[in-house]
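Structure tokens please, single chain.
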Amino acid sequence: MEGSIDDERLDFGKMGYGCQHYRRRCLIRAPCCNEIFPCRHCHNEAASILRNPVDRHELNRCDVEQVICAVCDTEQPVDVSARIVGVSMGEYFCRICKFYDDDADKKQFHCDDCGICRVGGRENFFHCKKCGSCYSVTLRDNHRCIENSMHHHCPICYEYLFDSLKDTTVLRCGHTMHYECCHEMIKREKYSCPICSKSVIDMSITWKRLDEEIEGTTMPEYYHNTKVCATK
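Here you go.
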């Protein structure tokens, strides 16, 4: 496949046991193009920059059937360990997502309702049926539901949120975006949701100060008898 992973990245996957996305002791063969990649994100990044737009595509994680052991270089059907040398390809393995990860500190778990694996510990999350995604238990009965609120792109960077590797935050209005994008927006003194324009933080003190400033400002004499009539 033109524009696919190069030899240096493939060698890094074998010697470094993983890539910038995951730490694991295997590579995957993408059934859509029959190429080898450290993970589906590496595949999607390579496929997204192919010269011919028609050839650009994404890999469905559940379609992966073959993996290559990074220790013995043996290709085999998806399994928790390498069949020849017997090493685990990842401390965490999901047979549904065909997903390996050697960083168990992430506390990965598979959500049947989401249909994908999440991180952070199952006990710390619940699945909101209306929003269509897992949220922190701190948001249970404490967030405004919007149907499929996570099944759209971040309004700032436009990355698809549902399976993004970045942390996501739920705004007061119920809309969602990347946490770092929200933080950057507030740092630039943009305090309204890019989707519905409602305040993303408590602005009551600011509105109170504005009201006090207006009340303390004398109306110019020129406007004392001015009236604005509504037009039809």
